[in-house]
Amino acid sequence: MTEDSQVATLVDRALTGNRRSLGQAISVIERGGADAEAVIRVAFPRSGNAYAVGITGPPGAGKSTVVDELLQVARKSARTVAVIAVDPNSPFSGGALLGDRIRMMRHASDDGIFIRSMGARGHLGGLSLATRNAMVLLDAAGNELLLIETVGVGQSELEIAQAADTTVVVVPPGQGDTVQTIKAGIMEIADIFVGNKADHPQADRTISDIRELLRMDTQRRKWRPPIVKTVATRNEGIEDLWIRIGQHRKYLETGDLLRERRRARLERDIVSIAERKLRSAVIEPRIDSAEFGPLLDRVMSREVDPYAAADSMLLASGMAGR
Q1: Is residue 103 a contact partner of residue 72, using CB atoms and an 8 Å limit?
Q2: DSSP state at residue 122
Q3: Which homologous superfamily is 47-254 in?
Q4: Which of 32, 46, 70, 124 could make an S-S bridge to 140, C-beta 3.0–4.6 Å?
Q5: Cβ–Cβ < 8 Å for 79, 144
């Protein structure tokens, strides 16, 4: 059996509900390369049915607890749910910190729930290409709902809004001026705000800050992000959060809004994949060539400007510069 056929067989088993094969196929995706591409080639035609909810927010917001409790509520109406917990990972070993997965182990006996931790692999957007590909595979495997919890790195994790249908931003109390903390960029991605740890003395201040931000929003969006108060450790407010997610989904499904979001997502994926392939096939070989060092020296000495040097690389690769 060839390597390609082995990958195809593995994916076929994963798509028929074999959880072990599903986990192995995600590991193939994480390793990247031609095999990862082969997985998506098989899985993609069967994807496009799952609804994806991104859960993001700063460190200490309680995102993992919110996701853990949301699983309980979601399973009442969703036949199958998959969770991707994007963990910080070591820049040396690449290994993810599996804290999120350990917290959710109480769901391990539920055949309708699949949980996977994945490393961000240094990707500042909070999502790597492997994570987005895993979403495609889990979708194709028949999961009705995908919950993606991202690394808590503040406003640099805006990429989750491009990958999810509904984006939930969890905001904790007691972190100074909440307006200054979340206004730069994070406002634009939130479909729903969660004021978690609502039993905290500063929780009301946080909610007021978010309301003020929404009041100052000049975009006048038709969907006004609701604010849900939760105490996730006591499962308070989680039912309300699930209702709000359903309301946002209904809003998107009215007209072509959901289709437009997903079309824009696929456009970004195509461009991203093309850029990666172009770099691998064209740019990296030129960097490794004997001619690149002298070209760099000429730029260093200001004989050639960087744009002209880039044009020279592309021309040497058979591509016309502009």
Answers
A1: no
A2: T
A3: P-loop containing nucleotide triphosphate hydrolases (3.40.50.300)
A4: 46
A5: yes
End-to-end distance of the chain based on CA atoms, in angstroms? 46
- Determine the Cα–Cα distance for residues 310 and 321; give it in Å rounded to an integer: 8
Residue 15's pLDDT is 94
* Residue linked to tokens 């963990």: 87
The pair phi, psi for residue 321, each rounded to 5°, is: -85, 160
pTM for this entry: 0.87
**Residue 321 CB burial class (10 angstroms; 0-12, 13-18, ≥19):** exposed
Cβ atoms of 237 and 199 closer than 8 Å = no
The residue ranges of the chain whose pLDDT is under 70 are: 1-3, 88-105, 108, 120-127, 151-157, 175-187, 218-220, 319-322
- DSSP single-letter state for residue 157: G
Residue boundaries of the structural domains of the chain: 1-45, 47-254, 267-316
